[in-house]
Specification:
CATH architecture of the domain at 78-155: Orthogonal Bundle
Radius of gyration: 26 Å
Mean pLDDT: 89
Low-confidence stretches: none
Order of helices and strands: HHHHHHHEEH
Strand order of the largest sheet: 1-2
CATH class of the domain at 78-155: Mainly Alpha
CATH topology of the domain at 78-155: DNA Binding (I), subunit A
Strand content: 5-15%
Number of helices: 8
């Protein structure tokens, strides 16, 4: 029986002679065994969580430009998440407390039929604090009202309840 080193040597030699056929064969095998590969990868990840985390962090460090570009693109396409994250950061900074989930925010928007409470238009809605965080308001769902960006910016730090 051949050792692993001998098998690897033979594979490298075969690849050096005809890399295209090896690539085609590998691609066909990957396509044929995709479910099997995914299952094995999941099993390995569950069995080696710290090693998986280490590998992921190393990949992120080596691909920071790509990761940042994808993150910026995602945040651009999800402005409500960006606004919520910024509000949560301000809340932590001022130690006002309170949080709300994305599900709660979606439920609140549905309650008002996806319309801005100030102007009544059906635009992209942003969470607005009835009592602003700057004036001691909490970032809990009972202090949030859905306003369009224009109305939210116009309101500023005034305490106005449109509900």
């Amino acid at each position: 029986m051949k050792t692993r080193d001998e098998v690897n040597k033979e594979r490298r030699a075969a690849y050096a002679i005809d890399p295209e056929s090896i690539k085609e064969r590998n691609a066909a095998w990957y396509k044929k065994n995709s479910k099997k590969r995914i299952l094995k990868a999941k099993e390995w990840s569950q069995a080696n969580p710290s090693k998986r985390k280490e590998i992921c962090l190393k990949w992120i460090r080596n691909n920071t430009e790509y990761v940042n570009r994808v993150h910026r693109e995602w945040m651009k396409n999800h402005p409500e998440v960006r606004v919520r994250n910024e509000a949560a950061r301000r809340t932590r900074k001022t130690q006002a407390g309170g949080t709300y989930t994305r599900t709660e925010w979606e439920r609140l928007k549905r309650k008002y039929r996806g319309a801005c409470l100030c102007c009544g238009k059906k635009k992209t809605l942003t969470p607005d604090h009835v009592i602003p965080v700057a004036k001691g308001g909490r970032s809990s769902i009972d202090n949030i009202q859905p306003l369009c960006l224009k109305c939210n910016q116009r309101k500023g730090i005034k305490t106005t309840d449109y509900r």
